[in-house]
TrEMBL record:
It comes from Prauserella rugosa. It comes from the Bacteria. Coiled coil: none annotated. This is Carbohydrate ABC transporter substrate-binding protein, CUT1 family (TC 3.A.1.1.-).
């Protein structure tokens, strides 16, 4: 898929800096010492992270790092995803210096590296051959690199796939194809939707947020042949292909999806599926570990996993990774790197598997994880499907037309945080029945056209 540049680096930095200033004004100050601060008896590293189950395990094991590094203490600032993004963006863009390490994604990493906001980690990696960055899944590594150098290192990576209840399919006399289409999934959802018994035909995100409902929705747009912009930055949200994807998604969720879909995100869908209240769930590949965890799921061993449903493309999944980076202004970069190395190294995977169970190890980033016998046994149902999904998560496999931006389920432009959220709000309103799909889509088109015009002017 051929892509074109999208504005000068100066223009992009200006947009991000303005966004960061706005976010800083809206957010309360985090209660933390300055980066690299000296606490009683040593140095305190302040690390900003997203609150999720995988990170909770890392925090629980952090005493091991402190024991191996006398005099270094770790302080985690944990926030929900939307708040974490806003706080970290404001701090890093404004060179606030609050954090020694930050948790970011492959949306932020290349842009921030180009802006000079992140420490180049390649010299640290090259100085430690045992870290073995060649072990990272290539697409994940590339998504965190700028000009060939890694500026963030992955904690876990993901694509998307479809989970389905094998027992419910068998009971209904249905068989899931090895590579389902969206039309087939829609028909399965219609037949399996059983609201009288509290079982939805499918769970799909409808919660507003560019990282919530737009993640699965954009993969539908792509495989339906749609795109956000043509090569000249003309907004394409009201094109026939985009409109078809929009109406399909809204209709599928409203007719055969979960109750309260307009406010359901990853967590809500996961809870519902884990309680046996959905026949299918299309979402991030990391969901499989939770689905198969006896401590959190009532459907262990009852699910099958197949590639993301498609229409006009070979594949249709997304590519995403939560990673760790060091702000350029961090004072003690070596200590920060030591922490990053500990948390993203091969040894950490072994520790999590031994301490908490192999279904809870960080996946989707290191190839060696998939060679661990204990993990392969625990993840037999989803290990290979996860790798297969990540391997084809690129524009060449998931799109039908050239676009002027990077990204699959997001657009790698600084304006997308705001634009994507606004469009997702329109999608959610259509799902909730608060607006007609056509009216919501027209408003979304106007938002996109405004952003596109700014890129046309800079060409």
């Amino acid at each position: 898929m051929r892509k074109r540049g999208f504005g000068t680096g100066t223009a992009r930095r200006s947009v991000l800096t303005r966004l960061a200033i706005l976010l800083a004004a809206l957010l309360p100050a985090a209660g933390c010492a300055g980066a690299g601060a000296l606490g009683a008896g040593g140095q305190t590293l302040v690390i900003a992270i997203v609150s999720n189950p995988q990170m909770e395990d890392a925090v629980a094991l952090s005493h091991r790092f402190e024991a191996e590094n006398p005099g270094v203490h770790l302080k985690f600032v944990q926030l929900p995803e939307n708040q974490a993004r806003a706080k970290i963006t404001a701090s890093v863009a404004n060179e606030g210096g609050e954090f020694d390490a930050v948790m970011i994604s492959n949306y932020e990493a290349p842009q921030w590296a180009e802006n000079g906001w992140l420490e180049n980690l390649q010299p640290y990696i090259d100085a430690d051959p045992s870290y073995d960055d060649g072990d990272f899944i290539p697409s994940i590594k590339d998504s965190l690199s700028h000009q060939g150098d890694m500026h963030a290192v992955p904690f876990y990576g993901e694509s998307s796939f479809l989970a389905y209840r094998k027992d419910l399919f068998a009971k209904a006399g249905l068989e899931m194809p090895a590579n389902p289409t969206w039309d087939q999934v829609q028909e399965f959802a219609r037949k399996l939707n059983d609201p009288a018994n509290g079982v939805a035909g499918i769970c799909l995100r409808g919660k507003p947020g560019w990282g919530e409902s737009l993640a699965p929705f954009n993969t539908v747009v792509n495989t339906f042949g749609g795109r956000w912009y043509d090569e000249n930055w003309n907004a394409q949200l009201t094109s026939p292909q985009f409109r078809q994807a929009w109406n399909f998604y809204v209709d599928l969720v409203r007719n055969h999806g979960e109750v309260g879909a307009s406010s359901a995100g990853f967590q809500e869908c996961g809870n519902r599926y884990g309680r046996g209240q959905a026949a299918m769930w299309y979402d991030a590949t990391v969901m499989a570990g939770t689905n198969e965890d006896p401590q959190s799921s009532e459907v262990v061993g009852k699910s099958g996993y197949v590639p993301a449903p498609r229409k006009d493309t070979d594949a249709a999944g997304w590519l995403y990774t939560w990673s760790l980076a060091i702000p350029k202004v961090a004072e003690n970069k070596q200590a920060s790197w030591d922490f990053l190395r500990w948390m993203t190294g091969k040894e950490f995977v072994q520790t999590v598997g031994t301490e908490f169970g192999w279904n809870r190890v960080p996946t989707g980033c290191r190839m060696s994880t998939y060679d661990i016998p204990e993990y392969r046994e625990a993840a037999e149902a989803y290990a290979q499907p996860t790798l297969d999904a990540i391997s084809v998560a690129d524009q060449d496999h998931t799109m039908t037309k050239p676009v002027p931006y990077e990204g699959i389920q997001f657009l790698s432009i600084p304006e997308f945080q705001d634009l994507g959220t606004r469009v997702s709000q329109q999608l959610s309103a259509a799902i909730a029945g608060q607006k007609s799909p056509d009216a919501a889509l027209q408003q979304a088109q106007e938002y996109a056209a405004t952003v596109g015009k700014s890129y046309q002017e800079s060409q």
